[in-house]
Design a protein that fits this description.
Elements: H1 2-10, H2 20-35, E1 45-52, E2 57-60, E3 65-67, E4 73-74, E5 83-89, E6 113-116, H3 123-133, E7 137-140, E8 165-167, H4 170-173, H5 176-181, E9 187-190, E10 194-201
Parallel strand pairs: 5-6, 6-7, 7-8
Antiparallel strand pairs: 1-10, 2-3, 2-9, 4-8, 5-9
Length: 202
């Protein structure tokens, strides 16, 4: 573990597939196994990789600006975006499933940002439903995530993920709903930044 940590330190903290840190990790582990007498092969295959770039922001009209890191994280395989739109809540009603069902988006205002609570399905399904309903972005608020500790759920694959998808903790996501209930227009200028690509790895 110390050797792998050293490799990460030498490569900007990254050992993700498709990076120099990953290649160095593969080489190190393969060498260690060979020294123990194992026959080692490292076949190549293609896989999708993802990296959230610095500088992502979300700004509220007449309110604060949030930044990538403590305030929110883009979900793995989220698209990038630069947009401004109102927010429409989705899946909060007792008879709805947090956006997991396409019917949760009945009456959704096309061209707005969907705001959903956690649901029982994979987040990927909620994103695909949001895309089909005409959402320009999706925020899934996680009240169980502590202040300053947003998580990064995976969307499993970049295929079909055509909009930015963010995951804020409780103190960032839940204030959206009271603003909507008061009738105040809640508009966000979105600039989430991410990079998605297919790479050959081993």
């Amino acid at each position: 573990l110390e050797a792998l940590m050293e490799i990460a330190t030498d490569n900007g903290g990254l050992r993700t597939a498709g990076t120099a840190g990953y290649e160095a990790s593969v080489q190190y582990v393969a060498e260690q196994l060979r020294e123990m007498g194992y026959s080692v092969e490292t076949p190549e295959f293609e896989m999708a990789t993802y990296l959230e770039l610095p500088g992502g922001t979300v700004s509220v009209d007449g309110g604060p600006t949030f930044e990538t890191g403590d305030d929110f994280k883009a979900m793995i395989y989220s698209a990038s975006g630069d947009l401004s739109a109102a927010v429409t809540p989705v899946g909060f009603a007792d008879n709805e499933s947090g956006g997991c069902a396409a019917t949760d988006f009945n009456g959704f205002v096309e061209g707005t940002i969907a705001l959903a609570p956690p649901g029982s399905c994979f987040r990927r399904q909620v994103v695909l439903n949001a895309v089909a309903a005409g959402a320009v972005a999706l925020v899934v608020s996680y009240p169980q995530y502590a202040k300053g500790e947003p998580r990064r759920p995976t969307l499993l694959s970049p295929e079909g993920i055509a909009i930015p998808v963010l995951s804020p903790p409780a103190n960032r996501g839940t204030p959206c709903r009271p603003l909507l209930r008061t009738g105040r227009r809640y508009t966000s200028a979105w600039r989430p930044r991410s990079a998605r690509r297919w790479c050959t790895t081993r």
